[in-house]
Design goal:
Chain B: Belongs to the binding-protein-dependent transport system permease family. Chain B: Pfam families: BPD_transp_1 (PF00528). Chain B: Keywords: Cell membrane, Membrane, Transmembrane, Transmembrane helix, Transport. The complex is a heterotrimer. By secondary structure, chain A is mainly alpha-helical. Chain B is mainly α. Chain B has a domain of 190 residues: MetI-like (MetI-like fold). Chain C is globular and about 65 Å long. The chains are: A mainly alpha, B mainly alpha, C alpha/beta. Chains A and B meet through helix 1, helix 4, helix 5, helix 6 and helix 8 of A and helix 1, helix 3, helix 4, helix 5 and helix 7 of B.
Chain lengths: 272, 295, 421
C-alpha cells in the first residue's frame, strides 16, 4: 500500500478510461446532431450543427411522465425485493446448516442457468392465466427474487467470519436478529453491487414488459423508446440516442450514489 | 423445547427461503417443466393455441441437433466466446479493480463511474460506435494500425476476425459489472493481512498471489460463473452487430435458439435450450471445483 | 438430492405430454368466412398497431367514431421491435385484442395457429392490389385485409447519372451498365447496393428472381428454388458483387441511405418509406439529386409485395365492430387520408386516383410497380425458408460456393423445412 498511488497506474487507468467512455461520449454528442450527421460517413465526433430536435421530439411525442413512473415503480420494487429476499436466502445458504439447504442452492443455481428464452412463453401464459397481464404485479413478481442475487449474497456472506455469528448464537440471539443486526450491516458493498445490478437489469428490461403490458399506460421507458424510434423499415437514430441519454441519467445517479459503498466494508472494522 | 435444534434450524432456514420458494413454485417451476416437456414434442408456433395437440417424439429433437451443421457451427463459436472471453473479461476487470482500489488515491470516483459507463450505455449506441471504431476505412482502430504501417482489415466482415471482434466488445461491455464485484470483494480482505505480509517483506506480486487472489476466491467464483453463463448465452453482441454474418461465423447458440423460436420451431428450440443448460451446468461445476476454497 | 430434481421434472413432463398426441386435421375444408352485420358499429374496439402506424391510427379512428357514435376505438401502439414475439406470446395466452396490424410475411404462421378469423365475403378482393391480397390467403382462405402497401423500386442518384451520361435502366443489361457508369464516371464506390445477405436480403433478390420467371413454389406448393430461371437470377444478382459494383459486406440499418446521400452508393432497391429518410438526411435541396424508377424488366416486370395486413382475432370481444372498423380503413377516401397522415402507400387500388396521390410522381412509380408486385407464399415456415435464402445469397455473393451449389443446398434445406401444412 503506497499512500499516493503510482503514477503509471494513473496513466494506464486514464488511457483505459478514454477507450472505455468513448461510446458514451459519442452517444451524448450525437444526440444533438441532425439526423443526417449521425450516420454520416465518415462518422464524426463533434456535431457540425447542434440541434435539440431529438430531445424536443422525445418530450413532445412521448408521455415521459407515465413511462418513467412505470419504469421507476417496477425497478425500485424489484431492486428492494431482491436486496431483502436475496440476502435472506443468501444468509441461510451461507451460514446456517439445515435440511434442504443443498436442494435450495441447487434450485437457485438451476434457475440461474435455464436460458430465459425457453421459459418465456410458458411464463407469459401462466402470468396471463392468473390475471396478472397488464398489472404491476405481472411486471414485478417474476423478477422479485432473482437467483443471481441469491448467489451473489451467498458468496459474500460466506466470507463473513463464522466466529462473529457463532458468538451471537451462543449469546442466544435468534437468526432474524443476527441477520438484521450483524450480517446486513456488514453487507454494504455486496448490497450496493446487488442493487445496481438488479436495478439496471430491470430498468433496461424490454421483452417482458412489452408482452405483459396490454395498454400504452403500462409501458416502461425501453418499450416506449422502441415504439417511437424503430419503424418497420427504418430507425430514428436521433430519437433513439436522445432517449438513451435520458434513460441513462437515473442509473448513473444511482451508481454514483451507491459506488461509495463499494469501498466501505468490513475491512475497515478489522475482523479476522 | 419440543423441537430439536436441527428441526429448528430447518424451520428457520426455510422461513428465510420462503419468498424464493413461493416464487419458484408459482412462477418458475411450471414454465421450466412445460418447456422441458416441449423439447420432447414436435410443437411449433402454429400449435400455440392447442399446445396439447402435438406429437410426442421423444429425443428426436435432441438427436437432430447433432447433425445440424448450423447448430454445430454456433456451438463452436460459443465455445470460443467462452474460452477466450471469460478469462479476458475477468483479467481486465480485476486489473481495473486493483488499479482503482490499490493503485490510486485520487479520482477514484471518476474511474469507478467511468469504467462502469459501458454497462449503462445503450446497446444501440454501443453498436454504432463499435462499428465506427472498427470501420475498415475511417475507423480509429485501423487508423492506429495505419500509423504503424499496417493495412487494417474489415473487422466485422472478415470471417476470421468477426468473432474475435465481438469477444473484445463483449469483454469491454462486461468489464464494468465485474469491476464492481471485485471492488466489493476487495473490501472484505482485512488490511492486517497485508501489514503482516509487508513486515515479512513480501513484494506486490507476492501479496497479489498469496493474499489478494486467495481471499478474492468467492468473488472470483461468482464472476467466473456469471460471466461463463453470460457468454454461453451470448446474444446481444451478434444480434446488434452482425446478425450471425459473415457466413455464420458469429452465429451463437443463443442467437440460433432465438431464430428457431422466431421461426416457430418451439420443440426444437427448447431442446437446444436444454442442451445449452446442460453445458452451462457442466461449466459451472468445473468452475466450482477449480475455485473451491482451499481448506 | 440434487440429482433427483431433474428426474422428477422429466417424469412429470413426460406424463403430461404422453396423454396427448397430434390429431390429424379432419380434411382441409376451407374455413367459413365471418359475417358482418348491417348497421353501425357499437362498443369498444381494441386495436394493436405497430410503430408510427400505432402512434397515428387514433387520428383516423376519430372519423370512424364520428360515423359510428356508439363505437370507440382504443388503439395500443406496439413497437415493431419485438412485435412478432408479442403477437406469438399473446396468441398462446389468449391475450389478443380485437384487431391487429400484422406484417405480411407473418400471416401464414399466425393464420395457421387458428387464432385469426376468416375475412368476411363482403370484402371485395378485386379492390386491392393482387400481390397484397395474396399475402392474406393461407391455404385458400383469406384471414385479413391488406391495409398499406410496400413494394420495391430503384432509387438512383440523378446528379451522378447525369455526370456519367446515363439514363435510368429499363432492362437487366442496362442496369448493369448503369451501375458500372455510376461507379466509373459518377464516382460512386458502389454503383448499386444490392443486399448481399443478412436478414431480409431475399426481399431485394426475389424481385430479380421473379423477373427471370422463377417462382418460389410451384402449383402444388412445392419449393422451386433450384431451377434454371432461379439460377439465371442469382447469377445475375451476384455478378454485381463479384465484379465489385456492389459490396458483399452487410450494411447496418440506415447506412444504405446515409451512403446514398453522401454519394458512395449510386443506386439501391428500396420501398417508398425511404423517401422521408433520404430527405431527412439530405435536406430539402437533395430532392433534385435523386430519382426513382420501376425496377428493370427481365423476362417480365416484377417486384416484392409486402406491407401490413389487418386481422381480427377469433376470440375478439367485438368482432362485428372490428370488421366494420377494417371496412372503414379500406375505404378509398380513408386510405388516401391515411397516406396524408402516415405516408403509407394505399393497398386499395382506387385510392391512388385521389388527388393527394395522383399528383405525386414519386409515389406513382411505386403505384405502377405494385401492379406487378408478387408476395412470397403465405406459409407458416416462410420466415425460416427466407433465412435459408438470405444465407444462400451471402454465400453466392461472397463466392464461397458456386451458384449451382448454393441453389441445390437452398432447395434441399427448404424442402426439409417444408411448407408447414
Amino acid at each position: 500500500m503506497t499512500a499516493k498511488g503510482r503514477w503509471w497506474v494513473y496513466v494506464v487507468l486514464t488511457a483505459g478510461l478514454l477507450a472505455v467512455i468513448s461510446p458514451f461520449v459519442w452517444m451524448l454528442l450525437s444526440s444533438v446532431k441532425p439526423a443526417g450527421e449521425i450516420l454520416g460517413t465518415p462518422p464524426t465526433w463533434l456535431p457540425g450543427h447542434v440541434t435539440g430536435e431529438h430531445y424536443r421530439s422525445l418530450f413532445e411525442r412521448l408521455d415521459l411522465a407515465t413511462y418513467l413512473t412505470n419504469s421507476v415503480a417496477v425497478a425500485v420494487a424489484v431492486t428492494v425485493g431482491n436486496m431483502v429476499f436475496c440476502s435472506m436466502l443468501g444468509y441461510v445458504l451461507a451460514k446456517l446448516s439445515f435440511r434442504g439447504r443443498r436442494l435450495l442452492f441447487g434450485l437457485v443455481m438451476g434457475m440461474l442457468m435455464v436460458p430465459g428464452m425457453v421459459t418465456f412463453v410458458p411464463l407469459f401464459i401462466l402470468v396471463s392465466n392468473v390475471g396478472l397481464a397488464n398489472t404491476y404485479s405481472g411486471l414485478i413478481l417474476p423478477y422479485l427474487v432473482q437467483p443471481v442475487g441469491v448467489f451473489l449474497m451467498r458468496q459474500f456472506i460466506g466470507e463473513l467470519p463464522d466466529e462473529l455469528i457463532d458468538a451471537a448464537r451462543v449469546d442466544g440471539a435468534g437468526e432474524a436478529r443476527i441477520f438484521a443486526r450483524i450480517v446486513l450491516p456488514l453487507c454494504g458493498p455486496a448490497l450496493a453491487t446487488l442493487g445496481i445490478i438488479t436495478f439496471l437489469a430491470s430498468w433496461n428490461n424490454f421483452l417482458w414488459p412489452l408482452v405483459v403490458a396490454q395498454t400504452e399506460d403500462m409501458y416502461t421507458m425501453p418499450v416506449a423508446l422502441a415504439l417511437y424510434s424503430v419503424g418497420q423499415n427504418s430507425i430514428d437514430y436521433g430519437l433513439l440516442l436522445a432517449g438513451a441519454v435520458v434513460v441513462v441519467v437515473p442509473v448513473l445517479l444511482l451508481f454514483t450514489f451507491l459506488q461509495r459503498h463499494f469501498t466501505q466494508g468490513i475491512a475497515t472494522t478489522g475482523f479476522r | 423445547m419440543a423441537l430439536s435444534r436441527a428441526t429448528h434450524r430447518t424451520i428457520v432456514g426455510w422461513t428465510f427461503a420462503l419468498p424464493f420458494a413461493v416464487l419458484f413454485v408459482v412462477f418458475m417451476a411450471g414454465p421450466v417443466i412445460a418447456s422441458l416437456g416441449m423439447s420432447f414434442t414436435d410443437i411449433r408456433g402454429t400449435d400455440l393455441r392447442t399446445p396439447l395437440n402435438v406429437g410426442v417424439i421423444g429425443l428426436e429433437n435432441y438427436a437432430r441437433l447433432f447433425s445440424d451443421t448450423r447448430f454445430l457451427r454456433a456451438a463452436w463459436n460459443t465455445v470460443l466466446f467462452v474460452v477466450l472471453g471469460v478469462p479476458l473479461t475477468i483479467v481486465l476487470a480485476l486489473a481495473v479493480a486493483l488499479g482503482i482500489d490499490r493503485g490510486v488515491t485520487k479520482f477514484r470516483t471518476v474511474f469507478r463511474v467511468g469504467y462502469y459507463l459501458p454497462v449503462v450505455t445503450s446497446i444501440v449506441a454501443v453498436a454504432v460506435v463499435w462499428r465506427f471504431l472498427l470501420h475498415p476505412d475511417s475507423g480509429m482502430v485501423n487508423g492506429l494500425l495505419g500509423l504503424a504501417g499496417i493495412d487494417g482489415p474489415n473487422w466485422l466482415t472478415d470471417p476470421d476476425l468477426a468473432l474475435p471482434s465481438l469477444i473484445v466488445m463483449a469483454a469491454w461491455r462486461g468489464m464494468g459489472t465485474l469491476m464492481v464485484i471485485f471492488l466489493a470483494g476487495l473490501q472484505s480482505i482485512p488490511r492486517t493481512l497485508y501489514e503482516a505480509a509487508a513486515i515479512d517483506g513480501a513484494g506486490p506480486w507476492q501479496r497479489l498471489r498469496d493474499i489478494t487472489l486467495p481471499m478474492l476466491r468467492p468473488a472470483l467464483l461468482f464472476a467466473a460463473v456469471i460471466t461463463g453463463i453470460g457468454y454461453l448465452q451470448v446474444f446481444e453482441e451478434p444480434f446488434v452487430m452482425t446478425q450471425g454474418t459473415p457466413l455464420d461465423r458469429t452465429l451463437t447458440v443463443s442467437y440460433y435458439i432465438y431464430n428457431q423460436f422466431g421461426f416457430g420451431n418451439y420443440g426444437y428450440a427448447a431442446a437446444m435450450s436444454y442442451v445449452l443448460f446442460t453445458v452451462i451446468v457442466g461449466l459451472t461445476v468445473v468452475q466450482f471445483r477449480l475455485l473451491r476454497p482451499k481448506t | 438430492m440434487r440429482c433427483r430434481i431433474p428426474f422428477v421434472v422429466l417424469m412429470t413432463s413426460l406424463l403430461a405430454v404422453a396423454a396427448c398426441g397430434r390429431e390429424t386435421q379432419t380434411g382441409a375444408a376451407p374455413q367459413q368466412p365471418s359475417s358482418v352485420g348491417e348497421g353501425k358499429a357499437t362498443g369498444e374496439i381494441t386495436v394493436w398497431a405497430m410503430g408510427g402506424e400505432g402512434e397515428n391510427l387514433g387520428r383516423l379512428a376519430a372519423g370512424f367514431e364520428r360515423e359510428n357514435p356508439g363505437a370507440t376505438v382504443k388503439v395500443t401502439p406496439v413497437p415493431w421491435d419485438g412485435a412478432h414475439n408479442k403477437l406469438a406470446s399473446s396468441i398462446a395466452a389468449g391475450q389478443t385484442p380485437d384487431v391487429s396490424l400484422i406484417g405480411t410475411t407473418w400471416m401464414g404462421e399466425f393464420a395457421k395457429t387458428g387464432a385469426l378469423q376468416p375475412t368476411p365475403s363482403s370484402f371485395d378482393r378485386a379492390a386491392f392490389f393482387p400481390g397484397l391480397w395474396a399475402t392474406t390467403e393461407v391455404g385458400g382462405t383469406s384471414y385479413g385485409v391488406p391495409w398499406y402497401a410496400d413494394t420495391r423500386s430503384l432509387y438512383y442518384r440523378k446528379d451522378l447519372a447525369e455526370k456519367a451520361g446515363v439514363r435510368p435502366p429499363a432492362t437487366w443489361d442496362e442496369l448493369k451498365s448503369f451501375a458500372q457508369a455510376l461507379k466509373d464516371k459518377g464516382g460512386a464506390a458502389q454503383g448499386i447496393n444490392l443486399q448481399a445477405g443478412g436478414t431480409g436480403a431475399w426481399q431485394t433478390f426475389m424481385p430479380f428472381g421473379w423477373q427471370a420467371g422463377a417462382e418460389l413454389v410451384d402449383g402444388e406448393g412445392k419449393f422451386t428454388l433450384d431451377t434454371p430461371r432461379m439460377r439465371t437470377a442469382l447469377e445475375y444478382y451476384t455478378s454485381f458483387h463479384r465484379s465489385g459494383l456492389s459490396s458483399s459486406d452487410r450494411l447496418v440499418p440506415g447506412a444504405q441511405v446515409a451512403d446514398f446521400v453522401s454519394g458512395k452508393i449510386g443506386a439501391f432497391v428500396s420501398g417508398a418509406y425511404d423517401r422521408s429518410v433520404i430527405l431527412k438526411q439530405g435536406g430539402p435541396e437533395f430532392a433534385s439529386k435523386y430519382g426513382v424508377v420501376e425496377l428493370p424488366k427481365g423476362e417480365r416486370a416484377a417486384s416484392f409485395a409486402g406491407g401490413g395486413d389487418l386481422v381480427v382475432f377469433k376470440n375478439a370481444r367485438n368482432a362485428d365492430g372490428a370488421w366494420k372498423f377494417i371496412r372503414y380503413l379500406s375505404r378509398p377516401d380513408v386510405q388516401a387520408e391515411w397516406f396524408t397522415i402516415q405516408a403509407d402507400p394505399p393497398a386499395v387500388q382506387s385510392a391512388w386516383q385521389d388527388p393527394a396521390l395522383a399528383k405525386d410522381d414519386f409515389l406513382q412509380v411505386f403505384g405502377r410497380q405494385l401492379k406487378v408486385a408478387k408476395a412470397p407464399p403465405a406459409i407458416p415456415t416462410w420466415e425460416q425458408v427466407a433465412a435459408v435464402i438470405d444465407g444462400g445469397i451471402e454465400q453466392a455473393a461472397r463466392g464461397t460456393a458456386s451458384v449451382s451449389d448454393v441453389l441445390r443446398t437452398m432447395q434441399a434445406s427448404a424442402a426439409s423445412i417444408g411448407t408447414g401444412n
